[in-house]
From TrEMBL:
<dbReference type="InterPro" id="IPR011004">
    <property type="entry name" value="Trimer_LpxA-like_sf"/>
</dbReference>
<dbReference type="Pfam" id="PF00132">
    <property type="entry name" value="Hexapep"/>
</dbReference>
<dbReference type="InterPro" id="IPR047223">
    <property type="entry name" value="CA_gamma_LbH"/>
</dbReference>
<dbReference type="InterPro" id="IPR052265">
    <property type="entry name" value="Gamma-CA"/>
</dbReference>
<dbReference type="InterPro" id="IPR001451">
    <property type="entry name" value="Hexapep"/>
</dbReference>
<comment type="similarity">
    <text>Belongs to the gamma-class carbonic anhydrase family.</text>
</comment>
<protein>
    <submittedName>
        <fullName>Carbonate dehydratase</fullName>
    </submittedName>
</protein>
Length: 186
């Protein structure tokens, strides 16, 4: 479902993107080319700051937002998801938040008030809250990363993790083409 927010902003969706009919996109959302947005995802840009302003939620080209993902933002802060980035099933991305190109965010992970660097991997059920994660860093499953976390204790993304992230992005890119081809059949 594509709908306006209370300010009257309507999502802007590139014609090559696929948005599942069960997904909800509301407000100042920008979906770039060849993006896959899966079933029951909710992307909602509707809150404003103290001055009545709102930044957009931007989903970069060739990215995938999988089933049940929620993307929202506090007080109109910007959320930017880079190109070729995967946000896996039921993850929550709550702005302010920036996620770099080629990142992977695992199942049920929660991101809030943070920046995730290019090529970073946040595995399943992890939390990143209130800090900036540099490029190519690896967050293991179930870890909680915050302002007091010693980032020097985190490892870099391995070749295998990077290959996995690229494979997920590639797989979901092929889904865009397939679902676009049959979208009038549902």
């Amino acid at each position: 479902m594509i709908r306006k927010n209370p300010n009257g902003d309507l999502p802007q969706i590139h014609p090559s993107a696929f948005v599942d009919p069960t997904a909800i996109l509301c407000g100042r959302v920008i979906v770039e080319e060849n993006v896959f947005i899966g079933p029951y995802a909710v992307i909602r840009a509707d809150e404003v700051d103290a001055e009545g302003q709102m930044e957009p939620i931007i989903i970069g080209a060739h990215s995938n937002i999988q089933d049940g993902v929620v993307i929202h933002s506090k007080s109109g802060a910007e959320v930017t998801i880079g190109e070729r980035t995967s946000i896996a099933h039921r993850a929550i991305v709550h702005g302010p938040c920036t996620i770099g190109d080629g990142a992977f965010i695992g199942f049920n992970s929660v991101l809030f008030n943070c920046a995730i660097g290019q090529g970073a991997v946040v595995r399943h059920n992890a939390v990143v809250d209130g800090c900036d994660l540099p490029a190519n860093f690896y967050v293991p499953s179930t870890e909680r990363i915050g302002p007091r976390t010693d980032l020097n204790a985190l490892s870099k993304v391995s070749v295998q993790d990077s290959a996995f992230s690229e494979d997920v992005a590639r797989t979901n890119n092929s889904l865009v083409e397939g679902y676009k081809r049959i979208q009038n059949e549902f």
